[in-house]
Amino acid sequence: MVLNETAILANPLIAPLANVLDALKAIVGGIFGLYILLLILRWIEYKRFGKVLRDVRDELQKLNKKVKKLEPKKKTKKKK
Fold first, then answer.
1. What is the rounded CA–CA span in Å between residue 72 and residue 16?
2. What span, in angstroms and rounded, lies between the C-alpha atoms of 63 and 57?
3. CA atoms lying within 13 Å on the CB side of residue 72
4. pLDDT tens figures, 8-44
5. Distance of alpha carbon 27 from alpha carbon 17, whole angstroms
6. Residue 75 CA to chain centroid, in angstroms?
7. Can you tell me the distance from the alpha carbon of 14 to that of 76, in angstroms, rounded to the nearest whole number?
8. Contacts of the segment 3-6: beta carbons below 8 A, 24+ positions apart
9. Cα 66 from chain centroid?
10. What is the spatial distance between Cα 32 and Cα 24, in angstroms, rounded to a whole number?
11. Alpha-carbon distance 60 to 56, whole Å?
12. In degrees, to the nearest 5, what angle opens at C-alpha 24 toward C-alphas 21 and 30?
């Protein structure tokens, strides 16, 4: 009987604390979830950016090969 009376008296004191803890849990969980989401998005962005950089490097290598074929060969001077 004493335990029931204590629970009834303590309930108004614990309820606001529980509400604050729930709000705090939602804020922290929301920030953590947002952080994880941003990390995933950044990882995807880096993968795409890396692919673009590899494509640009390949294109530059192809262009360099074509330019070298078009350049006239330099004549070397013979020493007498």
1. 85
2. 10
3. 3
4. 666 777 778 788 888 878 877 778 878 888 999 999 9
5. 15
6. 54
7. 93
8. none
9. 38
10. 12
11. 6
12. 140
What are the angstrom distances between the C-alpha of 38 and each of 17, 31, 50?
A: 31, 10, 18
* Greatest distance between any 2 Cα atoms in the chain: 120
Whole-angstrom Cα distance, residue 53 to residue 77? 41
- Burial (Cβ within 10 Å: 0-12, 13-18, ≥19) of residue 16: exposed
pLDDT tens profile 54-74: 999 999 999 999 999 888 777
Segment 27-36 long-range contacts (CB within 8 Å, at least 24 positions apart):
none
Rg (CA), the chain: 35
**CA torsion, points 39, 45, 47, 51, in degrees to nearest 10?**
-170
